[in-house]
Task: inverse folding
C-alpha cells in the first residue's frame, strides 16, 4: 500500500494507533497472568487431597502412597501437613465448645 496523499497518511496513522492500543491492552493482560507459585485448592487439588487422606486414614504409610505414583513425596508431606493443621483446628474448636 503506497500512501500518496496527506489524507491517506493520516488515515493510516489512525489505523496504526488503534492497532498499537489493542496490542498494549493485550500485552498488559499477558503481563498480569501468573503462572508460578502454588496452585489454588481447585477441584483437581481437592480430588487428589481427598484420595490421599482416604489412603492415609486407611493405614497406608506415606511411602506406600507415594509408591503408587499418583503424587510426589513432597506433595504427600504437604498434604499431611495440611491434614494435621485441619485436625488441630478441629480439635481446638471441639475443646472450646465443651
Result:
Amino acid at each position: 500500500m503506497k500512501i500518496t496523499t496527506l489524507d491517506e497518511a493520516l488515515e493510516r496513522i489512525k489505523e496504526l494507533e488503534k492497532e498499537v492500543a489493542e496490542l498494549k491492552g493485550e500485552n498488559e493482560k499477558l503481563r498480569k497472568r501468573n503462572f508460578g507459585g502454588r496452585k489454588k485448592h481447585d477441584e483437581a487439588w481437592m480430588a487428589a487431597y481427598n484420595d490421599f487422606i482416604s489412603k492415609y486414614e486407611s493405614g497406608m504409610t506415606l511411602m506406600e502412597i507415594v509408591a503408587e505414583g499418583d503424587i510426589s513425596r513432597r506433595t504427600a508431606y504437604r498434604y499431611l501437613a495440611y491434614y494435621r493443621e485441619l485436625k488441630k483446628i478441629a480439635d481446638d474448636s471441639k475443646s472450646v465448645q465443651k
Observations:
- The mean pLDDT is 88.
- The chain has two domains: 1-33, 43-97.
- The helical segments are 6-32, 43-57, 62-67, 73-97.
- The chain is about 75% helix and 0% strand.
